[in-house]
Amino acid sequence: MTQKTIRYGLIGTGMMGYEHINNLKLMPGAEIAGITDPVPQSIQLAQAFLGDELKDKAKVYPDRQAMLGDPNIDAVLISSPNFTHADVLRDAIASGKHVLCEKPLATTIEDVRDVSALAKRHKGVFWVGMEYRYMPPAARFIEEIAQGKIGRLQMLAIREHRFPFLKKVGDWNRFSKNTGGTMVEKCCHFFDLMRLIVKAKPVRVYCSGAMDVNHLDERYDGRVPDIIDNSYTIVDFDNGVRAMLDLCMFAEGSKNQEEIAAVGDSGKLEVFIPDGDLVFSPRRPKNPQTFHVAVDETALRAGTHHGASYYQHQAFLRAVRGEGPVEVGADDGYWAVVMGLAAERSAKERRAVEISELAL
Ligand SMILES: NC(=O)c1ccc[n+]([C@@H]2O[C@H](COP(=O)([O-])OP(=O)(O)OC[C@H]3O[C@@H](n4cnc5c(N)ncnc54)[C@H](O)[C@@H]3O)[C@@H](O)[C@H]2O)c1
After folding, report:
1. In a designed cystine with 80, which of 84, 152, 225, 237 is the match (CB 3.0 to 4.6 A)?
2. DSSP codes, 238-304
3. Cα–Cα nearest to 105, from 68, 80, 134
């Protein structure tokens, strides 16, 4: 039986928009039926990524309202800058269409409360773009811990040592006001992973961080960027598990960009990305074992997130077709932002921040 084609509209066609285009091109039964972006150059690049054959099928809308009012669009992908998400989401949810919104859901506590509450009542699929869950080695790591490989989880350490923030259209990512701050913008991925793995509520967050190396010489209308480029964050969960995040954004020379270690009462499991290796180290007898998780070449080539966008799109499409669950919903998006905002506040005020100060 042939499946109904799902027609996608893209709101925001910058770097992440192109990754969505490349991945949607690989999804059977997905059609890119529309694009909208206020910057003509971004539209032209999107059309180049679509290629001659697909470009004509993708209608260019003057704004999101025009796209959202068109019954020809079934699902929208929101990949505009962070500070636009809350307003775009209010319109997208009101349209009743299926929604995949890039992280973070919003940049302020007021907005994230509002849009996540709206999203919970949304009749269509509502999905938050937490790609890191879908990197195959990370997915295997998450699964192994859930299945008890290391016994009762007690400690989780996530390290991301990577390149500085890239240039964005209009340089929006240089200021915390636009992004929510690095601990929201970038680190919401890791707070999401923590919650997913620990399966408990965060209680308090302590973050020590600052902008010490990157962007110091940059000026935008005379203003100096104000985004954290290195930090240590500790999170206490209400089941007694502690987690930490070690972020460095001037470490592009690292062999691996992400390294995650989980220790339970009977063993330890580590994962290294992009190497794709997992190392299992039982306590007794001491016998560390390494195994490799390969990523499909097609998925790897379609993006810059170790194949994650490809697998996320497959899962989103299954949910839209009613063939699978929503795997990253409004609550996940809400908590990732709350934890990020708590970390930002902690770094600024140099104190541990109780989650109860922010979450309702
Ligand atoms: N999940 C991930 O791993 C991941 C990775 C990169 C970026 N992102 C997210 O994707 C989003 C876009 O990031 P990017 O790197 O593509 O940035 P970008 O600057 O490259 O692209 C953003 C595009 O949105 C357009 N835009 C601005 N205002 C708009 C509006 N009101 N409506 C529609 N389009 C608008 C801009 O003109 C630009 O073309 C951000 O929220 C970012 O956090 C997620």
Report:
1. 84
2. TTS-EEEEEEESS-TT-S-SEEEEEEESSEEEEEEETTTEEEEEETTTT--EEEE----HHHHHT-S
3. 80
What average pLDDT score do residues 324-347 get? 98
- Which one, of 177, 179, 157, lies nearest residue 262 by Cα? 157
Confidence grade of residue 93 (pLDDT, cut at 50, 70, 90): very high
Q: Confirm or reject: Cβ of 146 under 6 Å from ligand 1.
A: no
Residues 324-339 have a mean pLDDT of 98
Higher confidence at residue 359 or residue 62? 62
- Cβ–ligand 1 distance for 38 under 6 Å, the answer yes
Q: How confident is the model at residue 360 (pLDDT cuts 50, 70, 90)?
A: confident
Q: Is the CB of 55 under 6 A from ligand 1?
A: no
Report the separation in Å between the CA atom of 108 and the middle of ligand 1, taken as the mean of its atom positions: 17
Q: Are strands 202-210 and 353-354 parallel, antiparallel or unpaired?
A: antiparallel
**289-292: strand order across its sheet:** 289-292, 277-282, 267-273, 258-264, 153-161, 242-248, 230-237, 202-210, 353-354
Q: Which atom of ligand 1 is nearest to the CA of 41?
A: 39
